[in-house]
Amino acid sequence: MQNAAMLEKRGFSQLLPHKPYLLYLTAQAVTRFGDSLDSIAYSWMVYMLTGSELLMGSLFAFNFVPGLLFSLFTGTFVDRWLKKRVLIVIYLARGIMVSLTAVLFALGLLEVWHLFFITFINSTLECFSRPAEMSIVPRLLPHDKLMTGNSFSTSISRSAELIGLSAAGALIALIGISGTILIDACTFLFAALIIAFMPNPEAAEAAREVTESPPAAEPARRTVLGDIREALAFVKQHALLLITTVLAMINNFCLAPLNVLQPVYVKETLGAGAGGMSVMGSSLLIGMVCCGIWMGRYGKSFKKSTLIIAGSILLGLSYFALGIPGNLPAFRIEAAAGCMFLAGVAVTILNTPISTYIMEVTPKALLGRVGALMSVLCTAAIPVGSFITGAIAEHQPPPILFMIMGIVMILPVMFLLRKKSFRAI
Predict the structure, then answer these.
(1) Spatial separation of the C-alpha atoms in residues 389 and 407, rounded to whole Å
(2) 184 and 10 in contact (C-beta within 8 Å)?
(3) Are 178 and 105 in contact (CB under 8 A)?
(4) How many CB atoms lie within 10 A of CB 257?
(5) Confidence check: pLDDT of 351 > 50
(6) DSSP code of residue 216
(7) pTM for the predicted model, two decimal places
(8) What φ, ψ does residue 322 adopt, rounded to 5°?
(9) Sign of the alpha-carbon torsion through 417, 349, 412, 72
(10) 345: alpha, beta or left, given left = phi > 0 and alpha = psi -120 to 50?
């Protein structure tokens, strides 16, 4: 009985008193549900509209250009602005842009240049939402609850995505691609409404500082470049942030073939259609949900370095294994789904300790900038990998690319195992 009580104490129930965090998590779940619908409908729409692997790779790579151009600057503004207000405005704006995509496609007016334009606007908006989301969580939860909170967030968000993926095929058949994308737009508008009812965490934090500390002197006037330099100086002092970031860069580069070529892989290698895309995505999310539940209960029992290494190895092996199902005489989609399940487990084991470590060591006033800087560095490799993938895919099938990249993902682990400072976290 005592052991059971201890497990319950370190489980998700400890988050229940934090009502603002639960409201924020609800908004996240709503948007993730819509995004999962959109991931199937949008990918299929692009594949139908272009029919070109090279163009698909180019569009996927273009999605990350605004992040590389603007994230350092948007992070400084997010640190200055109210995070709640940022999220409301961004969710409303993204809902409008997604609605525009649905309407243009429904009217038969959607062209390739529209896709690039709308992708650029949506990605620019995400440059504000990502640092705001990272910055707001430590204001809603105490530090000792961050690992549990991040694990719980993974489970809830991925469960919402799983429901969306499961419903995507039926919705596309029932109301079409444009109708399904329009539902995604509505989820952003609903999420903005939920955030509007969430108490402002920065107001409560400011009130605590006034009562606990004497009034501070008027701060010096800040500049955008000065804020960026401050974030860079902080990251330089924390070498482990750079190590984990480089690892994320390698993984993102290697995952480009899967992100770009999944529709091609499902149709030509596995012999399935949009339903196969749903099966693949659902399997990935089930793995993430299951692992998120496990991490919430037991993740704090392990060193973050141990989890990161284990997740990296498992992710590389499961990615390599995706090259095998195409050679099977039967049960191809089932075998690929099993690989995606293991990949989902690996991603959660890998990402949860990394995001928790960033939130733990970074001062709250710097989280937006540091989060944006990490995002720029982590995503810098994605456009390169996407362009290369689109070009190579004209000559090599997806399974070969998956197997090669799976091997490459495991190689950095040998370096991490020799770093004593990394093994200490």
Answers:
(1) 16
(2) no
(3) yes
(4) 29
(5) yes
(6) P
(7) 0.70
(8) -65, -15
(9) negative
(10) alpha
127 and 74 Cβ atoms separated by less than 8 Å: yes
| The pLDDT value given to residue 210 | 43
Query: Residue with structure tokens 């560095």?
Result: 377
The distance from CA 412 to its chain's CA centroid, rounded to whole angstroms, is 22
* Euclidean distance between CA atoms 423 and 417, whole angstroms: 7
Tokens 């967030």 correspond to 153
370: tokens are 């540091």
**Residue 173: exposure state from Cβ atoms within 10 A (0-12, 13-18, ≥19):** exposed
Q: Which residue has the tokens 């440059």?
A: 127
Of the candidates 354, 352, 339, 361, the one whose C-alpha atom is nearest the C-alpha of residue 295 is 352
Token pair in block for residue 283: 């399997």
Buried b (16+ CB within 10 A) or exposed e, 135-148: bbbbbbbeeebbbb
Residue 198, φ and ψ in degrees, nearest 5: -80, 130
Angstrom distances, CA of residue 295 to CA of 235, 314, 347, 378: 27, 16, 12, 23
Give mean pLDDT, residues 233-257: 81
3-state secondary structure of 420: helix
What's the chain's length in residues? 425
Cβ 384 vs Cβ 242: under 8 Å: no
Distance CA 326, CA 274 (A): 17
Q: Which two tokens stand for residue 40?
A: 């199937």
Cβ atoms 34, 186 nearer than 8 A: yes
The 3-state DSSP class for residue 271 equals coil
As to burial, measured by CB atoms within 10 angstroms (0-12 exposed, 13-18 middle, 19+ buried), residue 320 is: buried
Share of the chain above pLDDT 70, in %: 89
Write the pLDDT tens digit of every residue in 380-392. Answer: 777 777 777 767 7
